[in-house]
Write a structure and sequence with these properties.
single chain; 233 residues; alpha+beta; 3 domains; two-stranded antiparallel ribbon; 8 helices
């Protein structure tokens, strides 16, 4: 039985390719073996990634809330604390995360978090949002606030861990909130008008005080909810 197991392990596409080379196989056959080898290695790398991520989730630590939002009198976990807490456990299982950025428009940015296993397989999650114009931030600070929020969002998303944000009374995140744009606000209001629906009642349904204060990540939810009511002809 042991000999059979060893034989099966040895007959990988890599070993078969080596044998084909030794036997002087033609180029066409070598290319097929090479393609098979690459597919096999990619599949093995994905398996190792999946196993590593599963083990990480079993040991994922609780992230402490180390910052205070004075406006909402609540606490939340900073990006630095989130990454500092999680990274050592990722490294333990040969996983690493890094961010990529795209400036889609002058005031709109996209952040991607790429999670990679040492075997080579990686997966990626992306979110985008407008510059955070709340408060008295300058243009650079507005983008930085949005980027920080999206980094935390994508980092938690790719790892499949729960959000570390505290929630205030209206259901919105208590820190670094990104609201819908003016264009999205007008779109929602036009849809409500076309259906003769009350904006006040719709806000009550969404559990917010002002439609302009709808967080960007709930825009699609709002659109889908309005579409359930047919437009008045």
């Amino acid at each position: 039985m042991e000999k059979e197991i060893i034989k099966k392990e040895e007959n990988t596409p890599a070993t078969l390719l080596d044998i084909a080379i030794e036997q002087g196989a033609d180029l066409e056959k070598l290319e097929k073996f090479m393609e098979l080898k690459l597919k096999w290695e990619a599949n093995e790398a994905k398996k190792r990634y999946t196993i590593a991520l599963s083990k990480f989730k079993q040991e994922a630590p609780v992230v402490t809330q180390d910052k205070t939002n004075k406006q909402f009198n609540s606490t939340y976990a900073s990006k630095g604390n989130l990454i500092k807490t999680i990274t050592p456990i990722l490294s333990k299982f040969d996983l690493s995360a890094n961010f990529n950025y795209k400036n889609l428009q002058s005031n709109w940015v996209e952040v991607s978090c790429k999670l990679t296993h040492s075997a080579g397989h990686f997966e990626e999650v992306s979110f985008s949002g407008p510059a955070d114009i709340s408060g008295s931030k300058n243009p650079i600070q507005q983008l930085k606030s949005t980027i920080t929020y999206l980094e935390k969002l994508t980092f938690a998303g790719i790892l499949g861990i729960s959000s570390t944000e505290e929630q205030d009374d209206d259901g919105n995140s208590a820190s670094e909130i990104i609201y819908i744009t003016d264009q999205q606000l007008h779109e929602l209001r036009d849809m409500l008008i076309a259906r003769e629906a009350s904006e006040t009642k719709f806000c009550d349904y969404l559990k917010i005080n002002d439609l302009a204060k709808l967080s960007a990540d709930r825009f699609n939810e709002a659109v889908s909810s309005i579409k359930l009511k047919p437009a008045v002809k």
